[in-house]
Amino acid sequence: STGAVTYDPGFVNTAATSSAITYIDGDQGILRYRGYPIEELAEHSSFLEVSYLLIYGNLPSPSELEKFDSRIRRHTMLHEDLKGFFGGFPRDAHPMPVLSSAVSALSTFYQDSLDPFDDEQVEMATIRLMAKMPVIAAYAHKKSIGQPMLYPDNSMGLVENFLRLSFGLPAEPYEMDPVVVKALDLLLILHADHEQNCSTSTVRLVGSANANMFASVSAGINALFGPLHGGANEAVLNMLRDIQSSGEPVEKFVERVKNKEAGVKLMGFGHRVYKNYDPRAKIVKETAHEILAKLGGNDELLDIAMRLEEVALTDEYFISRKLYPNVDFYTGLIYKAMGFPEKMFTVLFAIGRLPGWIAQWREMMKDPQTKIGRPRQLYTGEPERMYPSR
Ligand code: SDX
């Protein structure tokens, strides 16, 4: 027992590290950030407050939250040279490689935020990343649609500023939609951390070489881009659209999945840890109807998704393999209804996951015991042999 939870003895040997940040029980479908159930945080908290909780370990007092908020607002502006950086990418560049490159480039602009063992520098890196990554993400989107990049407005909070930078135009004032703000804030909370997933493990592994926070998070962004990980939310919408345009009943698509046709998977289903319904997917599904109704989302794709879920959850293939909807199954429909193109869905996942990456990197730097460090292997190659004499 770790004092907080009790594990089966067998499990202990499989754990790559220990962490005090996020707890998942895959069989029960439990997710807690610093002990708080995700359902409570989704209902009562905000993305900024959850970010503070993950990074500093406790919910902030009103004055602590206000100070965190104002520090982030004061660091949203990018160096003009970094702003020019976007011009070097092709017009149709996917925003994820642009995001990872620009985040890595932050280490060339901010030498006062690189030392992983200097508390003040770690704090500066934390605030700079929380402030600048959403701006970089919005600029990557503007680059891909050939629109001008606005300067941040520090009178706005993180989510509002990001929406204005993503959709605002210099020629007219941006009209903030409170429904979109609330929906995006909720989705960012749901993505904020998730224990030792692929991208977080990447952040820890790169950071275990004492690489700075920007370089480590940049590596995490690249891992998240994988379609089996964060890239799944984009893949789900493509899958739903293919089913829609094929006109085939979902049952036919499900048969193709079960027959494992050419790598066809039910994207947005299954999970390495959850062998029950992903609690985040449950929350997203509950709000999807409400949000799509208000935003005028694509109901037909939502109907296809609901039908797919209905068929899969009653089919032995999925039941026997404990395949349930994960966080990516419904989120893309909401992002689309907000006005984001598919290419931006995984970028939105990255913005949500940022506080988790930062918290996990800081925890590892403080406690070398939790460094994944250098994994060992079992060698399965040739026995020793000599170079042939010629
Ligand atoms: C995320 O780790 C995290 O916490 C990640 C994440 C986070 O917050 O960071 O939760 C975010 O990455 C969610 C997952 C998003 N990915 C997808 O939705 C892509 C589709 N899902 C999969 O590829 C798959 O389910 C994984 C990779 C997510 C999990 O795979 P598992 O649990 O290791 O299962 P497996 O690959 O060993 O497959 C077990 C069986 C296989 O069939 P058999 O060989 O036994 O016949 O289940 C099948 C697989 O073929 N299977 C699927 C399937 N997922 C697994 N069959 C159809 N569709 C699927 N989605």
Automatic annotation (TrEMBL):
It comes from the Bacteria. Pfam families: Citrate_synt. InterPro entries: Citrate_synth-like_lrg_a-sub, Citrate_synth-like_sm_a-sub, Citrate_synthase, Citrate_synthase_AS, Citrate_synthase_bac-typ, Citrate_synthase_sf, Citrate_synthase_typ-I. Keywords: Acyltransferase, Transferase, Tricarboxylic acid cycle. Pathway: Carbohydrate metabolism; tricarboxylic acid cycle; isocitrate from oxaloacetate: step 1/2. SUPFAM superfamilies: Citrate synthase. One of its GO terms (biological process) is tricarboxylic acid cycle. It catalyses: oxaloacetate + acetyl-CoA + H2O = citrate + CoA + H(+). One of its GO terms (molecular function) is citrate synthase activity. One of its GO terms (cellular component) is cytoplasm. The active site is at H271, D328. NCBIfam families: cit_synth_I, PRK05614.1. Belongs to the citrate synthase family. This is Citrate synthase.
